[in-house]
């Protein structure tokens, strides 16, 4: 049932505010984050190793910023197909965390089995509660996204991110990085997320309006800095999967180390830059692109648009939001740009060529 939408993907993008409301209701108790038993003692671990594939991997990369900056917990992130064959040493004091929508991805499951007996705790963040990955974990954390049918992951990504942010906050409190008042303030911020996501969905028309031009491009670049950098990868993956346009993501600061050679007037460059502590740096990278004729799509908030929107090809405006929430909120324009560009190209949005929803072979 597509709920009146043309595609499952459109339905799944649109239902994110509701699914996030469910998720927050399930995890937020009166006194803070309530994890399913047996929970995890973040004060007792020294390091977190996170492993996943595809979109779930980009959720892990985003979470590294949260765990390190907010909780002071060192994090390693790897794609499962590399991790499992590298024989990484997993010492005492390490918790291993696996993220998977389906809970059946072969490489992720094999990586989990590799960590069994080596890591102190095996955690997973899954959508399918009865999946192999959930069953083989010491603690499986559901993302409450409901069934995701579109091959391109959308609501599972925002729900994975939200569970991981809740975990990072829980870790920060356990490790003495957030006192009770600061922790409560962070939870209050999170409670605004469904409403913010709802507002972000309002850029649907703007995304549609530029999609015909994006659909003409052969290559599209995505740039982000700091906690927005992994989302640049997710935006590029989404676009590749369903529109078949070649898309790449770079950390904004890496541009001048090579990729800037790709820029000319035929290359749209999507810059994800809320008005945060790194905004000025992102803007100067964006101006380097514009100076070489690149067609910039700046995704930012009103303050960012006022400050840096002049001369930019297209500005997409999102509501202002607490910095920690930006990677979740800015997932919406990434999804909508991919969706509308694929529609403009006439590709099969829900069943893109060569792809399966669940990758159970390596
Ligand atoms: O079920 P999983 O989360 O383990 O799947 C991982 C990837 O196969 C998946 O995220 C894939 O990259 C999606 N098609 C992305 O849209």
How would you portray this structure in words?
Keywords: Aminotransferase, Cytoplasm, Glutamine amidotransferase, Repeat, Transferase. It catalyses: D-fructose 6-phosphate + L-glutamine = D-glucosamine 6-phosphate + L-glutamate. It comes from Wenxinia saemankumensis. It is found in: Cytoplasm. Catalyzes the first step in hexosamine metabolism, converting fructose-6P into glucosamine-6P using glutamine as a nitrogen source. The protein is globular and about 55 Å long. The chain is about 45% helix and about 15% strand. Strand 1 (about 45-50), helix 3 (about 55-70) and strand 2 (about 75-80) form a beta-alpha-beta unit. With about 350 residues, it is of the alpha/beta class. The strands form two sheets. Strands 2-1-3-4-5 form a five-stranded parallel β-sheet, with helices on both faces. Strands 7-6-8-9-10 form a five-stranded parallel β-sheet, sandwiched between helices. Helix 4 packs parallel to helix 5 (about 105-115) and helix 10 crosses helix 15 (about 330-345). The mean pLDDT is about 95. The chain has 15 helices and ten strands. The protein has helices at about 10-15, 15-25, 55-70, 80-85, 105-115, 130-135, 155-175, 180-190, 195-200, 205-215, 230-245, 280-290, 300-310, 325-330, 330-345; strands at about 45-50, 75-80, 95-100, 120-125, 140, 220-225, 245-250, 270, 295-300, 315. Bound molecules: 5-amino-5-deoxy-1-O-phosphono-D-mannitol (M6R). The site of 5-amino-5-deoxy-1-O-phosphono-D-mannitol has 16 residues, from helix 3.
């Amino acid at each position: 049932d597509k709920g009146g939408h043309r595609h499952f993907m459109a339905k799944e993008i649109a239902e994110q505010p509701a699914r996030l409301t469910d998720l927050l209701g399930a995890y937020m108790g009166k006194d803070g984050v309530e994890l399913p038993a047996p929970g995890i003692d973040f004060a007792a671990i020294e390091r977190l190793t996170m492993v996943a594939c595809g979109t779930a991997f980009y959720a892990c990369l985003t979470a590294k910023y949260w765990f390190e900056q907010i909780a002071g917990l060192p994090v390693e992130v790897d794609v499962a197909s590399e991790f499992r064959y590298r024989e990484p040493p997993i010492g005492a004091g390490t918790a291993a965390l696996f993220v998977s929508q389906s809970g059946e991805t072969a490489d992720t499951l094999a990586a989990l089995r590799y960590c069994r007996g080596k890591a102190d705790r095996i955690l997973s963040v899954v959508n399918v509660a009865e999946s192999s990955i959930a069953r083989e974990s010491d603690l499986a954390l559901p993302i409450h996204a409901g069934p995701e049918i579109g091959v391109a992951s959308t609501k599972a990504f925002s729900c994975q991110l939200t569970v991981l942010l809740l975990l990072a906050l829980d870790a920060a409190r356990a490790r003495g990085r957030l006192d009770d008042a600061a922790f409560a303030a962070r939870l209050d911020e999170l409670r605004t997320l469904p409403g913010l996501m709802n507002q972000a969905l309002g850029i649907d028309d703007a995304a549609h309006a530029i999609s015909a031009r994006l659909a003409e491009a052969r290559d599209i670049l995505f740039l982000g800095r700091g906690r927005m950098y992994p989302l640049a990868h997710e935006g590029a993956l989404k676009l590749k999967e369903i529109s078949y346009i070649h898309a790449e993501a770079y950390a904004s600061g890496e541009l001048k180390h090579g990729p800037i050679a790709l820029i000319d007037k035929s290359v749209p460059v999507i810059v994800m830059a809320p008005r945060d502590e790194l905004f000025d740096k992102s803007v100067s990278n964006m101006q380097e692109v514009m100076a070489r004729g690149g067609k910039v799509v700046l995704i930012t908030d009103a303050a960012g648009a006022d400050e840096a929107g002049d001369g930019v090809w297209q500005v997409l405006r999102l509501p202002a939001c607490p910095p920690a929430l930006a990677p979740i909120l800015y997932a919406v324009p990434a999804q909508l740009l991919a969706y509308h560009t694929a529609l403009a190209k006439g590709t099969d949005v829900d069943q893109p060529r060569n792809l399966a929803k669940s990758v159970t072979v390596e």
